[in-house]
Amino acid sequence: MSTTLKLSAPATREFWEIPILFEDAHLLALDKPSGLLSSPDRADPGRNSLTRLLHEAIAAGKAWATERGLTYLTPAHRLDAETSGILLLAKSKLVLLALANQFGTDQPQAKYVALARGVPRAEQFEVDAKIAPHPLTPGLMRVDSRSGKQAKTRVSVVETFRDYVWLACRPVTNRVHQIRVHLRHTGLPLVGDTLYDGKPLLLSRLKRDYRLKPGRTERPLLARVALHAAELTLVHPITGATVTFTAPLPKDLRVALKYLREHGGTTFGRHATSDDDQLSSAPN
């Protein structure tokens, strides 16, 4: 059976080959790439989403769907479009309902890894700040102590550099843009998160003797939101067993860390030697 899902959108000439992290008769865990919506966006209905592509592929009888006998496949939660990593899908409405009940009560335990700019206030800290939609800007969230919903994120420093920090973030609640808003609130905007004051990672900011050839424009080492859903633990909706899914670091984040370690002045933390080390190096 295939270990990836091949999805395409002929109208936009886009193609995705998405790795399968886990699969059984009831669940499918995918390693969602950055840049792909998990569900349709009402503000941009023409933009491709994983949900739409999956449903279209099943209806068209694609090989990966027919070999599994799939007639139903729906994400049980959401990831922001630019966030990469674990996305869990249900193979039936019954399983989807059971998973929705878990996610609705903040039971699943998730770990994200993130690259932010700034100096953390401590090696471990907690952000407990209510979050609400911005009253004037659609799609933007903000800390709002009066009308916001309760939100809490636990943060651990994995590795620090001269101007950047590699973090493990464990959201206790599940609010829209929670980690992004909470980190910005503490003075640690995520690299590449232009919505919340984050700037791309440039080699010219790291390498002291950096020289750009005449007529060339520097390309960022990392321009997308530097957030990756690395681990998800929950109760299996059918067996009742506790299950944990993990997703390796994508290439763009590995490259960013490589250059930071070479030129960014590591001041704390160890250098991981593999994807598994990268994910497990964060304190629990």
Number of separate strands:
13
- Name the CATH superfamily assignment of the largest domain: Pseudouridine synthase
User: Can you write the helix and strand succession as a string?
Assistant: EEEHHEEHEEEEEEHEEHH
Radius of gyration: 19 Å
- Average pLDDT works out at 91
CATH class of the largest domain: Alpha Beta
Gross morphology is: globular
Q: What's the tally of helices?
A: 6
- Category by helix and strand content: alpha+beta
Helix content: 10-25%
CATH fold node name of the largest domain? Pseudouridine synthase
Tell me about the largest β-sheet. Answer: 11 strands, mixed
Query: How much strand content do the residues show?
Result: 25-35%
How many discrete structural domains?
2
Low-confidence sequence ranges = 271-278, 280-284
The CATH level-2 architecture of the largest domain is identified as 2-Layer Sandwich
> How widely separated are the two ends?
34 Å
